[in-house]
Write a structure and sequence with these properties.
heterodimer, A: about 240 residues, alpha/beta, Rossmann fold, six-stranded mixed sheet, 10 strands, B: about 240 residues, mainly alpha, MetI-like fold
């Protein structure tokens, strides 16, 4: 579904991605982790073309992301993305947030879009919040709306960029629950996250990045039980200590 | 002060006709309103587009936007009035030039409206750019990630937020349009300042004249202020911008 081959990216002299290659098969959940500044967010933003990359190829469902001829809006409409800071549109109510792209991009009628939105809001447990504005919701609620907004486009896969990093600890669970459910239903997911519990539970593989490189790309069990590199060992010991 | 006050001057007839001085001032007020509102509509439309261009990732679009802003920001408004009135028509293609000079209806008004509109648009563009720039980068990303095109992202997501943020400086700009419209007397628009000068010369009651005109400008600008405050209150979104008063 997602094929990343030999992707490199420079900001001027600084290399932020170094020959990165990995893939996510249909129905698979892959967790990307690594210290801050390791390039994991940049990598995931390359997948739907929000960040351009200098070298290499990325294809999503056979469509080349870096090809200038690719209709990026059309591709992005099929790839859902959830952001660290939720990025709901604050001037729109929750139901308008869910309906906007369905109407403007997929051409659904307003009624159809609102109905689809209502089903998804119900699914993330926020049926009663449809007419509220994002500023009136808690962080955890906002992130669940953001997931529903991505799902409303009926995506072929979902990208998560540190979806729980900006949340208060007591709200992380409600967001992870939704993500676990999606994973168990067979949604293809690429998740940048430090939630190692989540990774253990649903990830097929873990990709560990450091300094823009993919240092390890291993089945989840193997990664946690016997990380091959010193850098991964150090990283795991730091984040699993408490 | 040795001055002969005459507050009933406004109801007296002008020396060369059967209108009263009040008629003159009201005509002037009408032109001031027409000129200001036309210029404002133009300025808002162009200002939003140019401001948006200047916040895009495209260097070419940014350069075009910057050129527009610098062109109108660095020349005094009065000089711009003269430029549009006396100079620009000379540089048009021959047929257009003749048409503008001889046949264009309400030539002074159209020229002044364009000039004031363009001048103000440069200032609005600067504010809109700042407004878009103040939004988190993630808003653009989120809009694009949903499959919206960049123009759609601006129209649906970025500009509605940016414009709410810049309502206070836009309010000042709206008030400025009324005040700046007074410069149009210099190219012969029969607006309030023009009529005031005419009344002062005709009636020799300059103090009453200019006090009245001062009041009329004040009412215009203050109404603009209240109108924008009403729009600001109506467009307030729960949880988006905290109430400051």
């Amino acid at each position: 579904m997602i094929e990343i081959r030999n992707v490199s990216k420079w900001y001027g002299q600084t290399q932020v991605l170094a020959n990165a290659s990995t893939h996510v098969a249909k129905g698979e959940v892959v967790v990307v982790c690594g210290p801050s500044g390791s390039g994991k967010s940049t990598l995931i933003k390359c997948v739907n073309g929000l960040e351009p990359f200098t070298e290499g190829t990325i294809t999503v469902d056979g469509v080349s992301v870096g090809d200038p001829k690719t209709d990026l809006p059309r591709l992005r409409a099929r790839v859902g993305m959830v952001f660290q800071h939720f990025e709901l549109f604050p001037h729109m109510s929750v139901e308008q947030n869910l309906a906007l792209a369905q109407v403007k991009v997929l051409g659904r009628s307003k009624e159809e879009a609102l109905a689809r939105g209502a089903v998804l809001l119900d699914r993330v447990g926020l049926r009663d919040h449809a007419t509220k504005f994002p500023g009136q919701l808690s962080g955890g609620q906002q992130q669940r709306v953001a997931i529903a907004r991505a799902l409303a486009m009926d995506p072929i896969c979902l990208l998560f960029d540190e979806p729980t990093s900006a949340l208060d600890p007591e709200m992380i669970g409600e967001v992870l629950d939704v993500m676990v459910e999606l994973a168990q239903e067979g949604m293809t997911m690429m998740c940048v996250t430090h939630e190692m519990g989540f990774a253990r539970k649903v990830a097929r593989r873990v990709v560990f990045m450091d300094h823009g490189e993919i240092v390890e790309d291993a089945p989840t069990g193997a990664f946690f039980d016997a990380p091959a590199s010193e850098r991964a060992k150090t990283f795991l010991s730091r984040i699993l200590r408490h | 002060m040795n001055y002969h006050w005459n507050w009933s001057i406004f109801l007296e007839q002008v020396k060369s006709g059967d209108e009263t001085y009040l008629d003159w001032l009201l005509t002037g007020l009408g032109w001031t309103l027409a000129l200001s509102l036309t210029a404002w509509a133009l300025a808002l439309t162009i200002g939003i587009v140019v401001g948006a261009l200047r916040s895009t990732p495209s260097r070419l679009l940014v350069a075009i936007g910057n050129a527009w802003v610098e062109l109108f920001r660095n020349i005094p408004l009065l000089v711009q009035m003269f430029l549009w009135f006396f100079v620009v028509p000379e540089f048009l293609p021959r047929d257009w030039s003749l048409w503008v000079k001889q046949e264009m209806p309400a030539k002074e008004f159209v020229t002044a409206a364009l000039c004031l509109g363009f001048f103000t648009s440069a200032r609005i563009a600067e504010q809109v750019r700042a407004g878009v720039g103040s939004l988190p980068r993630g808003q653009r990303d989120a809009a694009l990630a949903l499959g919206l095109t960049l123009p759609q992202a601006y129209r649906q997501v970025l500009l509605p937020q940016a414009l709410r943020i810049v309502i206070p400086p836009l309010t000042s700009e709206f008030m400025n349009v009324f005040k700046n419209s007074s410069v149009a007397f210099a190219i012969g628009v029969l607006e309030l300042t023009f009529q005031a000068r005419q009344m002062q010369e005709d009636s020799e009651q300059g103090i009453e004249t200019y006090l009245a005109v001062t009041l009329l400008y004040f009412i215009c600008a203050f109404s603009a202020n209240r109108g924008m405050a009403w729009i600001e209150a109506r467009s307030r979104v729960p949880g988006l911008i905290a109430r400051t008063n």
